[in-house]
Structures are given as structure tokens and as C-alpha cells.
Amino acid sequence: MANNDRLLVQILLLALLGAGLWVMAPFISALLWGAILAFASWPLMRLLTRWLGGRETLAAAVLTTLWILIVALPLVWLGFNLADHIRDATAFIRDVQVDGLPEAPAWLGSIPLVGERLLTWWNSLDQQGAALLASAKPYFGQVGNWLLARSAQIGGGVLELSLSLVFVFFFYRDGPRLAAFVLRLLQRLIGERAEYYLELVAGTVQRVVNGVIGTAAAQGLLAMIGFLIAGVPGAIVLGLVTFMLSLIPMGPPLAWLPATAWLVWQGHYGMAVFLGIWGTFVISGVDNVLKPYLISRGGNLPLVIVLLGVFGGLIAFGFIGLFIGPTLLAVAYSLLLDWSRSTQPSVQP
Fold it and tell me: Which end of the chain has a smaller Cβ tally under 10 Å, C or N?
């Protein structure tokens, strides 16, 4: 009878756990982002707590406010600017439908080798613009639906970011108690190896964070150097923009490609070619070398495990998979190593 009661309790606990996970499912991603951000900046939290005389709640509030100022507000500003550019593009298409293309810029015909051909193409496109727009009109709806879907994704991302910044406050305030709770759970599940696996997960996440932020800092610095050499105005600001865009996959080209186009528009073709090469092979190329090195540095994981975790995580889970993928593979690799060492067959005499 006691065994039946114990089984019933276990079933009820599993059902309760499943219901809790079902309720929390919409917030899992925001919780993970909040946990990752809190863990990556935990040394700053400890330092601020000491400065404020041990008042953890005040330190958590100050640091959360700092993250809002550094992360959330620039992204909101970027969103408003993106909306302005979309509105300008819509107005340009409407003007082209009514008045046709504007006069070709003077520098277009002076481009070596292809200038005359581009000028002829521009004039022919202006003459045939109405017909081309009429033939392309059925596709405008599809493009509009695609833009609407992307806008919904951006809005969902901003909401998720806002939730993660709310959650990070509680991770800051209750971090030590949460860590002790997780450790007790792991000790109940896997025994004496619990602390080792907790340190493994923490170290892997820390190296991934260092790799992402370190690579973004390197790309921002290299971009600023390239902008200064090419003579692009606002090179320091563009370097900071590149740093922020480097935190998302395929983000840096959104900074140096418009700068390259601006150089072409101004007629600085040599510097435009330089910045295009610099952006392709130096700014964007450093991501493929520096990030895996920084993530694998200081750990005992093979580099191929790190690479599979980074790129496989990105494909499977999106940007947050950059942290989940290496962590999952690191834990699985260590579990397999422990299991293989503990089940080695004894040698018979």
C-alpha cells in the first residue's frame, strides 16, 4: 500500500510539474535571456552590492535600470528609425508610380567601364517604369505581407526583451538562493556529481557570453578603423552600431554595406571597394575565427563540439541557441565520458 501511495504522489508531482511548464512555456525564452544576462553580469552585481552596503534589491534595481538604458532604449530608437525608412521607401515607390524615376545622378555616367551602360539602363527603366510597376503590382501585396510578418517578429522580439529585463531584476535579487535551489535539485537527481555539472553549465555559458561579446567588440573596433580609413563620417558612432549589430547573426553587414553604398554615391569608388573588402573579409570574417576560439578557450571541450553547438544551436533554436547549443553538447559530452569511464570492462586474467 505504501508503494501505491508513493507512486500516486510521484504521478501528481509529475502532473504538477507538467502543468507548471505549460503555464511558463510562453515565457521560457525571456526567462532564459534574463538568466543569461544576469549570469554574465553577476560580477558587476556583486561589486555594486558591496558599494551599496549589501542592499541587494537596490543594486538589482540600479543594474536593471542600467540595462534598460543601454539595451532597450537604443533598440526602440532603432525600431522608430526603421519605421521611418520603411515609410520613406513607400513614399518613394508611390512617387515613382506617379512621376517616374528621378533624373540619373551625375556620377552614374562617370563610373569607369560600366557608367554609360548604367546610364542607358536608368533611362530605359524610367521610360518603362510604369509598365514594370504594373507588372510588379501583384507582388506588392506579398511583399507587404512579408514586411508585416517581419514587423510582428520584431514586435515580439521587443516584447521578449522587455520581459527578460523584468526577469533579470529577480535573477539579480534572488540569484544565490536560486543557485542553491538548483544545486539541491541536481544533488537529488545525480548525486555527488551535481556540483561538477553545475559548474560545467556555468563555465560553458560564461565562455559563450565572452565569445559573443568579445567578438562583437572586435568587430566594432575593426569597423570603426575601416570607417576612419575610408573617411566615412561618424565613424565612432558607426563602430558602436556595428558592435550592437554584431550581437545578432549576420548583423555587421547592416552597418558597413550602407556605408559602402554612401561612398559609391559620393563618387569615392576606391574607398568603397576598400570598405567592401574590409567588411567582407575582416569585419564579418573575424566572427568565424574569434568566436569559436573564445568559446573553446579555457575549457576541455573539443573545438568541433563547440562549433557544432554554436551553429547547430543557431539553426535549431534561433539566436538563443548560440547559448543553448554549446551547453547541451557540453553536458552530453561530459555525461558520455563519465558513463564510459564508469562502465569500462574489467580485464580477465
Answer: C
pLDDT tens digits, 93-121: 565 555 555 666 666 666 666 677 777 77
In this structure, is residue 174 part of a structural domain? yes
Domain count within the chain: 1
pLDDT tens digit sequence for 209-232: 778 788 888 898 999 999 999 888
Domain coverage including residue 50: 29-113+137-336
User: Does residue 154 belong to any structural domain of this protein?
Assistant: yes
Q: Do residues 230 and 238 make contact, with C-beta atoms less than 8 angstroms apart?
A: no
**Is residue 282 one of the residues assigned to a domain?**
yes
Q: Any long-range contacts for 166-169 (C-beta under 8 Å, 24+ apart)?
A: 166/34, 167/27, 167/30, 167/31, 167/33, 167/34, 167/35, 168/34, 168/37, 168/38, 168/64, 168/67, 169/60, 169/61, 169/64
**Spatial contact of 238 and 259, defined as CB atoms under 8 Å apart:** yes
Assess if residue 349 is contained within a domain. Answer: no
